[in-house]
Amino acid sequence: MDIDKQSKLPMYAQLFEIITRQISSGELKEGDQLPFERELCEIHSISRTTVRQAMAELEKEGYIYKIHGKGMFVRGQAVKQSLMTVYSFHEEMMRLNRQPSSQILTFELIAPSSAVAQKLQTDEFVYHIIRLRSANADPVLYEETYLVQSHFPGFTREILEQDSLYNVIKEKYNIAFRRAIDTFRAINIPVSIASFLHEKQGVSGLQIERVAFIGLTPVEYTIEIARGSKFEYTIELQGVTMNSAISTV
């Protein structure tokens, strides 16, 4: 895409689009340095004022960052997750043009702790699964899941290695979650988890607790630790009836 000087779209906005497309396509990757102002002026036959306007917008929108004396660099883009429905990480990443992958760190059948039993309202055995979830090979979520065994007979690590969890639940067990309760909490990522997420000790993150139901029966309890710099949640409110709760600790 070249700058069209006959277009009604301002030239700085056209440059903005050119660079964001290069970032989204992978032509420009996280940490890459953008050409200097003078180079961009020569490449696109535009003024420095136009370039500076485009750079200001790119920085404002979080696409790039400035290092004084060195130039402008591509910022790693946050994964934007919509919470309008009960979502699948795998499907959402595919929708966002990100390549999802999961590393299974733990898969075991255990008796639930008292805290987990309280969340799932049962003392039945549960599958305990810990996974590291990545987008384009970049780890973004540390996820610990508990599934009530009786609802998922015959579930194995090998089955999970072949498909996403929610797809297994849907295809093998004919279950599609329609209701879940998510609870969010800002945290400092624990030392034991920070290294998995390629973060430093004490960096800020987001903890999401989820309880998913079949009818009124809770069957899944998941705790996710998300990298604050790599994951962004969006909640869209629609309609006239809305149940919400805000709590402080």
UniProtKB/TrEMBL annotation:
Q: Which Pfam families match?
A: GntR, UTRA
The answer to whether the entry has keyword Lyase is no
User: Which domain of life does this protein belong to?
Assistant: Bacteria
HTH gntR-type domain location is 9-77
Give the keywords, sorted.
DNA-binding, Transcription, Transcription regulation
What protein name does the entry list? HTH-type transcriptional repressor NagR
